[in-house]
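Hey, resending since the last one bounced:
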Amino acid sequence: MKALVKSHPVPEEVEWTDWPEPVCGDNDILIKVEAAGICGTDMSVFDWAERTVQEHNVRLPIVMGHEFSGLVTQVGKNVKKDINVGDLVTANIILYCGICRFCREGQTNVCDNRPTLGIQVPGVFAEMVAVRAENVYKVENGVPPSVAALSEPLCVAIHATERVMPKPGDVVAVVGSGSIGLLMVLVLKEMGVETIFLTGIAGDENRLALGRELGAVTINVSEQEPLEMILASTGGHGCDIAFETAGHPKAVLQALSLVRKQGKVGLIGMPHDLTSISTTALCIRENEMIGIRAYTPATWQKCVKLLPKLEKQLSRLITHSLPMSEAKQGFALMKKREAIKVILVPK
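The structure tokens again:
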């Protein structure tokens, strides 16, 4: 089969090339990939951002990609799930061990031994992928493959709310207007949160426009001072919660500046560089900073139920669709901030 392979630790070097077709084990499901999304982690691997690839323990050569949906072509003989040939499915790409302390407590996202598709295990920028059945989820009939491919980042947004637990009456800021930031707006709205501020920078005008259409109050921080706007809207207190989604040290500091005393900051983005934070200020204001990583199987159960309900809104995040053989163009669109979500299709 053909796959998009990163073979060397060289920025922007990938190849659409031959790769061994996966074998469907007795406990696996073999899937024909229909759609796959490019995300920030893929960008880091593509660019070979040293700090990020070291923290993720990327193993080369690797078939890239982990956001996807596809059609089942074979089901292993030991599989008991109600999944059949021809079903549209998606998958939790964290191959958690199931036996460590965290797995036993249901926190598989921080498993002590968690190889991940597209990082340590061949991923989904390929014609076919085999995934163990317990990680595979059936998508409701009628949901397009391109929308189903957004399941994984949607799970990230859902899990962020599981960790930080916003309430409908909270004022929430989402720092960063990329795909995760926009998905946070969708999930928060679905939870009943009415007041959501979404920040972006110069070049994010299209993203911010979509954020407004999804129900957020948007702030271009290159033109407006977000703290002034939020203080004016909250009686001088600030937001109850801020989610940092941009993955930049300045965004982390911005998120912290926007929350009130005893407010919470959820850290979703993963900056390439270190962030300098005054822990004294954290103590004085009794702020909480909460790390957020991936999702759990319980998150995935919520996600697949939400997909049909949010289908139309989710489809609006998809700005480009390209053949996997032209993936470099997709990475370039993401890097230039001309795309929100690029979907790759095997061709």
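The first helix runs from residue 40 to 47.

Sorry for the duplicate.
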